[in-house]
Amino acid sequence: MDLSQPRARGLALAVLCASMLMIILDGSVVSVALPAIQDGLGFTDGGLTWTVNAYMIAFGGLLLLSGRLGDLLGRRTVFVAGLAVFTLASLLCGIAASPAALVAARFLQGAGGALASAVALGMLVTIFTGPRERGRALGAFAFVGAAGASIGQVLGGVLADRLGWHWIFLVNLPIGAAAIVLALRVLPADPGLGLRAGADALGAVLATSGLMLAVYTIVQTGEHGWTSARTLLLGGVAALLLAGFVVRQATAATPLLPLRMFRSRNVWGANLVQLLLIGALFSFQFFIALYLQRVLGYGATATGFAMLPAAVAIGAASLLLSARLSARFGERAVLLAGLVLLLASRYFLLVLPVDGSYLTDVLPLMVLCFGAGLAMPALTGLGMSGARPEDAGIASGLFNTSQQIGAALGVAVASTVAGRTPGTTPDALNDGYRHAFGVGAVLLVAAFAVALTVLRRVRPAITTEPASIKETVR
């Protein structure tokens, strides 16, 4: 398909966004259906968490490698392979008859999700090269990422209540099959650099094992604690593996992650802001859902609908405003404005009452998620601004890795802080949740400080060539 035509680029964006929405929805859909899964397969309380952890470990651990494979083998090839693995794993999840079978299928699902997600952003920034058009495309992509979780909670509640938990996975089959067919038709076939250009096997082993072990250690802190010998030992081993990976990248002839990428302040700064911001957003999503259900007494489906205004606010900002404001004021300024709005929402979180009203106490929080819709597209643009075309896949994989680590770390730290408040009464739970929201506020302050002091404005130069972009960093 001729991508010089706007219609063709629009179809490509639709395929990328729809595919990512399917993968993102999966996480929140499963979280809502956990009680039904436990009843259906006989999971223990401890074992049930592995339906989430297995996916997170595979997804977070394989993103970096998947991004580089996209650069080497061709991003469309890796994207379609990821969709195929994810769709097959969804079938295996839907027909699983035992806890072990479901956990294994969820790990495979995470691997497929990593392959597709790691290269999607890289394809987007190479397809949309004009500054305004790229801004709009990033806005749509960020909306899918930020609002997908809210939509998934509604969908998960409806599917689990009406059709049974199997269908939260089986619904992916027709969507995944259609996405594969359309991806082969509308996405550009790039040959890639070839394995000889960067087949760093040792680096791949060090990065994947280190990231998987790091995510595993983080998600297990709720059970074992942050200062236990087990956590310290596993965390130390993960740190050594990742340090070995960095040393390897500095000496390898064909590194998996070229360290020259980090010469750009916007690359490493945006990844750090991403980690902090996503940690705050995911801990908010996790604990506001608990507040609605355990303190205010909402059901799963009602909780999903209660969080829909957040998806609307994010969509309005990311699809309608973020690109326009970034073109006029710069992505850094828009990011900072979005972070200020999110910090304002923390006031409402820190004073949430145990007998709160949705209209006066919860709805303002959802509306202020408008800030996330401003911040995420701008941050994504900054994070990808310093990547060369041949590094678009690994830059995308790195950015997604920061997101996954931030999500796991944010929820784990906030859960630890919330758990320090003893008791299961609504008052005790509410106190714990407010402390968790305080963790999110600290993360947002840190994100704002890094964005203000590290990131630099990327200003597109004026050009008469719509299919090209020249950028100057000020």
UniProtKB/TrEMBL annotation:
Signal peptide: none
Localization (cell): Cell membrane
Single GO cellular component term: plasma membrane
GO molecular function: transmembrane transporter activity
Chief site of localization: membrane
Keywords: Cell membrane, Membrane, Transmembrane, Transmembrane helix, Transport
Annotated transmembrane regions: 12-36, 48-66, 78-101, 107-128, 140-159, 165-187, 199-219, 231-247, 268-292, 298-321, 333-350, 362-384, 405-423, 435-455
Top-rank taxon: Bacteria
Pfam families per the UniProt record, alphabetical: MFS_1
Membrane topology listed for this record: Multi-pass membrane protein
Major facilitator superfamily (MFS) profile domain location: 12-459
Protein name, entry field: Putative MFS-type transporter EfpA
Species for this entry: Actinomadura rubteroloni
Taxonomic lineage: Bacteria, Bacillati, Actinomycetota, Actinomycetes, Streptosporangiales
Gene behind this protein: efpA_1
